[in-house]
Specification:
Structural class: alpha+beta
Strand content: 5-15%
Shape: globular
Helix content: 40-55%
Number of helices: 3
Radius of gyration: 15 Å
Order of helices and strands: EEHHH
Number of strands: 2
Mean pLDDT: 88
Strand order of the largest sheet: 1-2
Number of domains: 1
């Protein structure tokens, strides 16, 4: 049988050691962002110089793994960009 991914043998979901959720403050609330550290490292590799280009790329990648409420897009963008600069 082909390897179809990693699944928890107890519940069938994502194994606990494969969950890569980081907590950041978004609009005053602690918010979990899956794969954030990896996303930031990948965006850094692009060597983007424009603040807007960095923010757009982070948002694009975060949205692939996380739900971003439409009304909170700006707050998410600010929080994610701040986290990007903190990790420098």
């Amino acid at each position: 049988m082909a390897d179809e991914g990693d699944y928890c043998t107890v519940c069938g979901g994502t194994p606990p050691d494969k969950i890569l959720i980081k907590q950041i403050m978004v609009d005053g609330k602690e918010t979990g962002i899956d794969k954030l550290d990896w996303i930031i490292e990948e965006v850094k590799k692009l060597k983007l110089t424009s603040k807007q280009a960095i923010a757009d790329e982070i948002m694009l990648r975060v949205a692939q793994f996380n739900y971003i409420p439409t009304k909170k897009r700006e707050a998410y963008q600010e929080a994610l960009l701040a986290e990007y600069h903190r990790s420098a």
